[in-house]
Structures are given as structure tokens and as C-alpha cells.
Amino acid sequence: MKTIHKLVLKAYLGPLVMTFFIVTFVLMMNFVWRFIDDLTGKGLSIDVIIELLFYATINMIPLGLPLALLLAGIMTMGNMGENFELQAMKSAGMSLMRIMQPLIVVTLLVSVGSFFLVNNLVPYAYKRSMMILSDIKRQKQVLEFKDGLFFNGIDENMSIRVEHQDPETGLLHDVLIYDSRSQGGNMTTTMAETGYIRLSDDKKFLLVTLYNGDNYQLTRNTRWYTKNALRHDKFDVQDMTIRMEGFDFQQSDNTMINNSQSKNIVELQAAIDSLNKVVSEAVARTYDPLLKDNIFTNDIQVLQLPDSLRIDKSEFKDADILDSIAKLPLRRRNEIWNSAKIMAQNSRNSLNFDEGTAKEGLNQLYRSKNDWHKKLSLPISVIIFFMIGAPLGAIIRKGGMGTPIVISVVFFVIYYVISTSGEKMAKEGTWDSFTGMWISSFILTPIAIYLMIKATNDSSLLDTDWYDAQFKKIKKKLAPVWLPIAKRVTATKAWRKMREKIKQRRLNKATQR
User: What is the pTM of this model?
Assistant: First the structure.
């Protein structure tokens, strides 16, 4: 490798790593804000939170990697252009493509690596992150008593009310506990002046210590001739240990997650083949009986029927049919109307019952196809964003974080809006998956090629002086056309001003009189 290539590569790798971590961190903060309510108040250990954030960060890589390459390309080539390094290399006889040769090699390696990452690592990280979030949402919150309010977070058959809780010592005042967890509908009511209620260290037991209180136990009897019994006990100190569930964090098996985002490209292809068969069978099972048995019964123009059941509607006219029905007795017309109404209701019920299976199969099929194309479109988008960023940096010749960030955000917003719109249209079935998932690449590729050509030819694409000179040339060419028009407009405006002045003078004289 030449020394000049080492210099370019060294200038590129630093911004690439830095921008990748910055972009990933920004996207990670968006994830944290989305799920901050689920993570707080659960007493989660630090290792669980770190594991969740680690897997969530991996899920953000497909979205942040193209933006990082775009920003790194603009910064690298912009810094080299601002420091006149590009001019020196070009003066030595090196073309822009030759200068960018090591950067292109790195981008190709990143592109290939991104495919294996999104195909193998991201599905596993998605499974793990969704499973951890599901376990966190299923976990109950820590004990938190509010003064004067009932707390039902322990069990649906157990309510605790505390008049006041000392924030420093945790001592509870005027405790009231309703416990109806026992079988047979028996309920125990406990009232105490003070006490402590807390979870054990392993969060599997509720430890209750009460002072100076009463117990009321109501025993219900199912037989009509036996009366209910009420038992009353007083106590000075009462200790209870209640087994609890749901307060300790327990991780489930990630095999429960089985949607399209948790599969690699081979599994997605197998799922697509299976779903195509399921959808075809569901559609046939839904619509064929509906057409044959209810809607187009005995209709030769739609269905192939035996000769004994054929009725050729071409021999009749709508007016003839209506006249024939009108001539029938009233009872017979009611029978025909009721029969048609029943068939219509049966058709609607049959369609509503079976159409759900076909619709769900279609939704899964669209999602699987979208994810299949998404795994292939990411490596291409990485190359396209580099082809936009590197020549754009060579054209604007501005380094640092200001201008590159603004330009990168503009291009990324365009890419994100187009990709999201295309994916939505593909999920709804309006577009096919290929068009929906590749439309952003089709739109940005000509822009990348155009910028590469302009940068190679040292075009003044973003030079304001060049645009001012071009505007003056166009203005000079159009002068014979627009100058007479401008003179007429100016003369008309002057005439209007003169008329306004005359009117104003007349009005002033009339007012003075």
C-alpha cells in the first residue's frame, strides 16, 4: 500500500468509528426514551439493563451504519479539501477515484460485513431484546404505598391501604389489609396501628410485621342451613410471610419470538414458501364455496355446471325477470325475498369467518418478503451513502462537524422518509415488496453517480459565485424579452402613483373647504 493511501485511510477510519458511535448513541437514546417507563420502578439489576441496551444497540446498527458512512465520507474528504490535500494529490497526477481507492475497499468490506450482521446477529439480538422487554413488562413493580390509597399490585385478591408512610424509616401508620385469596370466598380483614411491609431479598416473599391491631375473619358456608362465621382476634405483634410471584425478574426462552424480524434469509425464504401455500389454500377455502354455493349458483356464465342445473341468463332480460316476480303471489314473493336474504347473510358470515385467516396469512407474507429484501438492501445502501458522502465532501471542501452533519441529516431524512413510505406501501400490499424496499436505492443511486461525476471533474457544484455568474448569463440572454415588459410595468406603476397623488390632493382641498 502506498504512503498516500495510508494517509487517506488513516484520515477516514477515525471519523468513521467516531460517527458510528455517535449515531448509534443518538439512536440508542431514542430507544431509552421510548421504554423509560417500563425500565423504571421495577428494581432491575444493572446487568439486566446492560444486556437489554447491548442487544438494542445491535438492532440499531442497520439504521445507523449508512448514516455513519455518509457522515464519515463528507468529513474525511471535506477535511482533505479544506486543508488543500486533495489539490496537492491531484496536482501530483492522482485522480479522485485513485485517491478514494482504499476508502472504496473499506466500504465494500463494511458492506459485506453488514449483510452477515443483519442476517445472523440482528435476528438473535431482536429475539433477546424483545424477550427481555416482555419479561420486564410482565414483572410487577416494587412495593410503593401512597397515603390514603389502596395498593393492588401484590395480588388481585389482596388490597392494602396505608394512611401514612414515613419516608425515612418506612414505618406504616393505620394499616388496612383485605385478603380474600383463600378458597371458598373467605375473607380476612386486618387493621393495625403501625407496621412494616417489605419484600424479601429474593423478592419471592412478602414480609409483614404489624403492631396493635385486630383480625376479622369471615368464613362463608355454602350450605343454606349453616350460617357464616365471623372471628375476631386482637394482637400486639403479628408476623406474616406471604409467598409472592412476579416481583423477581425471570428471563424466558427466546424461542417464543418467531416473527419475520427474528429470522435469517434462509428461514425467511422457507417461511415465504409456506405462507404462499397457506394464503392460496385460505383464499380457495374462503371464496370458492362462496361463489359456487351462494352467489353464482346455477349461473352458466360464471361456473361450469351440469346440463341439468344450467340456466342461461342471456335468454332473459332484467325487466322480464322483474315482471315474472311481480306476477307471483305475495306469499311466494316473500319466500323468494327471505331466501335471498338468508343466502346473503350466510355469505357474509362465511366470508367474515374465513377471511381472517387469509388476511393474517397475507400480512405475514408481506412482512416476510419485506424483511427478506431489507437484508439485501442494507449492503447496497451502505455503498450508495458512501458514494454520496465522499464526492460531496470533495465538492464542498468543508470539514469539522457543522456542515457535514447538516448535509448528512438532510440526505438521511430523505432516505428514511422514502424507505418508510415504501415499506408501508409494501406491508399494505399496495406495492410489491421489491419496489417498496428498493425504491430509496433507486432514487439515491442517480444522485450518487451525479455527485461522483461532478467531483471527478472538479465541478463547482456548490460554488455560489458560479451560480451567480450563470444567473447573470441567463439574465443577459433574456434581456431583449423582459426589458420591454419591465419598462411597461414600471410605467404603469408610475402612472398609478401619479393618479393616487392627484386624488389625495383633491381630497385634501375638499376637506379644507
Answer: 0.62
